[in-house]
Amino acid sequence: MQKASSLLNKYEEDFDNLSSINPGWSSDLRNKAMDTFREIGFPVRRKGNEKWKYTNARPIADVEYSSGKFEKMDSNDIKLIAPWHESWINLLFVNGHYQETFSGSLSTNIQISNMASNDLAENLTSNVGGIMDYSDDGFAALNTAFMSDGPIITVPEGENSGIVINLIFFNQGLSDTVNYPRVLITTGGNSIVSVIENYVGGSGDQTFTNSVSEIYVGEDATVNHYRLMNETDDTYDVGYGRVRIDTNGAFNSRSFFRGCGIGRYDLNVSIEGENASCDLQGLYFTNGAQHMDNFINIDHVRPNCQSNLFYKGILAGRSRAVFGGTVLVRKEAQKTNSVQSDKNLILSPHAEVDSKPALFIYADDVKCAHGATAGNIDADTVFYMRSRGIDLEAASRLIIYGFAGEIIDKVEIPELRSYLGESFLSSLPSHRFEF
Amino acid sequence: MSNSQKLIEIKDLHVSVAETEILKGINLSIGFGEVHAIMGPNGSGKSTLANVIAGRPGYSVISGDIVYKGSSILEVLPEIRARAGIFLAFQYPVELPGVRTWQFLKSAIDAIRNENGQEELKIRDFDKLLEEKRKLMEMDPDLVRRSVNEGYSGGEKKRNEILQLALLDPTLALLDETDSGLDIDALRIVSHGVNIFKSPEKSVLIVTHYQRILDYITPDYVHVLVDGKIVRSGGSSLAMELEEKGYDWVKDVVGEEVNP
Ligand SMILES: Nc1ncnc2c1ncn2[C@@H]1O[C@H](COP(=O)(O)OP(=O)(O)OP(=O)(O)O)[C@@H](O)[C@H]1O
Ligand SMILES: [Mg+2]
């Protein structure tokens, strides 16, 4: 208890310090969120805590963090560890603070503002906090209380130049530091935008990234959203994606996770207009003692909508992965078409996945299917390859790459696709397989 | 006959799977340039024999030996056997979801070349070779770009096996029921592929239930495998006799073993 109260004091202290420098527009929001955090704290309860059933948040909660301080990075160093391209708008945030934008000469109608700014128009700030409901979630409340820097991306009606916005949140890996990235994307009618969010960690003990992204998909708009978690063994990363889709809107999400100390991505998509769709695909790979938890909820509110949830996991070492995918089809959401699946390739007898796809259907005219699988590399498959001269290790690699390729190959940005195929995937630890 | 004239010699081979003895003393020698056919009832051990030669894990050799190009290969890993020229066309080819045919075959050919001190095939040369073999096997151009065997029909899978045979160009081809499930055109294409492969330095072992493939690929020897033993060997006419009279006929004459 002594410890717990000293930890809370630290948050109070940091909150006071932050309040003195943060812009006025967010103070109400942050104060309320801090109240909630004071009240509910971290979701560390082990009993009856359905949302955190397979992931113990205690190690994250037990560290006394100091706020990440801005330290300028050489952006050339960043270019080596995160995907970027000169035809994209690349925004770099270091330890939670905006550093710079690097891109070729681009002109775009998309407006990108920084939350840290004091003189933001009301129409930009009013949507911040509009989707993320933190009332029963300590991490989300904490992010909201401490948000200070982050992009507000506003895509005007009809914007369809195919621009890619690449957000790089780099955590230098200074021990015992926390940073709170915050993103808001709003899209006007009939627009298309692609946004990549990168959460990249340098190595260090117990650094903690606690992020929230809110995304509004407007009428007839399409948001292609990519999320890359590329943290290290010592990092904790708890992120939230909150999405609302309007009539005829489409939200396409491709998420890629390399495991870290404790990683969690809580993605919640609310389909609130008719004829809208979401397509959520993800790939996670974990090794060593890593832990990765994908907690996904899709809420079908309106009729004639579609959702596809397709995740794959590759697990090695003693790692754990959790896949919780829940689709709710409300009574009004007739003619819903929803598919969800989670497939896991388990490379080690000591790795484990808890995969729990679930469907709650209250409408009577729907098409829904779900399934989960976990299997090892198949011995017949390996022998087939060896009988062609391919050795065990190369065979295993081809199989793993093939497994992952099913998600990676669908990435529509060519430079990102090749980054994922080369850098991200090749970082898979080489592994000895036994048959 | 001296060893040097035989590509492979199987000597009194006893093999068990999960404690059950399946092969009960096989003697079989295949010389360079020869085509041998193995026929026999379901479950008699034909696939077991082909798989043991290719080095599939899961079989225990209790006694006997397999001598390939003059040395025992019992302790040799399957990939090393493959690189030394042993090729098995599977009775049930495996689907490799997500593994592109191009990547798979390029990896295979380079692994074999590396082992033999050759450098990796240039992409352009490989593409040319692959296209040549694809045409030989009359495969859809798209199949080569797809995942290996995924979503292929039974006949396409078998044709893909012979495409791999043509591409990898081994020394010993073990064809395990490659003819089963083929329509007349596919049978002709597959047989053509095998006949092109055949040469005085290369040998073929065909496992089959039917005479019809042997009309295209004439065997020098036909062996009948019953209950883990070769009970009869003869020339190509033996296959026709079997087709006419069935296996009961050979079962009756067990004991009159003839080996080439
Ligand atoms: N992995 C295994 N485990 C147990 N028994 C096996 C295994 N593999 C083969 N057998 C048994 O060994 C025997 C020979 O099988 P094999 O596949 O070699 O027969 P085959 O002659 O090829 O038959 P078919 O004509 O049906 O292909 C069968 O009785 C089979 O059930
Ligand atoms: Mg068989």
Would you kindly provide a written description of the structure presented here, covering whatever features stand out?
The complex is a heterodimer of chains A (435) and B (260). With 435 residues, chain A is α/β, with parallel strands linked by helices. Chain A has two domains: 5-377, no CATH class; 378-435, no CATH class. Chain A has helices at 2-21, 27-40, 58-61, 75-81, 122-125, 138-146, 379-386, 392-408, 414-426, and strands at 66-67, 89-94, 97-102, 111-114, 151-155, 164-171, 177-179, 182-187, 192-201, 208-217, 222-230, 236-245, 250-258, 262-271, 277-286, 291-300, 306-315, 320-329, 337-346, 352-361, 367-375. In chain A, strands 1, 4, 5, 7, 8, 10, 12, 14, 16, 18 and 20 form an eleven-stranded mixed beta sheet that branches. A ten-stranded mixed beta sheet of chain A has the order 3-2-6-9-11-13-15-17-19-21, with helices on one face. With 260 residues, chain B is an alpha/beta fold. Residues 255-260 of chain B have low confidence and may be disordered. Chain B is globular, with a radius of gyration of 18 Å. Chain B has a six-stranded mixed beta sheet with strand order 6-9-10-3-11-12, sandwiched between helices. Chain B has one domain (6-252): Rossmann fold. Chain B has helices at residues 46-54, 78-83, 101-115, 123-136, 141-145, 154-168, 184-197, 212-216, 237-245, 247-252; strands at 6-17, 20-31, 35-39, 60-68, 71-72, 86-89, 96-100, 147-148, 172-176, 203-207, 221-226, 229-234. Chain B is built from ten helices and twelve strands. The A-B interface holds A 378-381, 383-392, 394, 398-399, 401-406, 435 and B 54-58, 77-79, 82-83, 87-88, 90, 93-94, 96-100, 103-105, 107-109, 111-112, 115, 147, 164, 168. Magnesium ion binds at residues 46-47, 91, 176-177 of chain B.
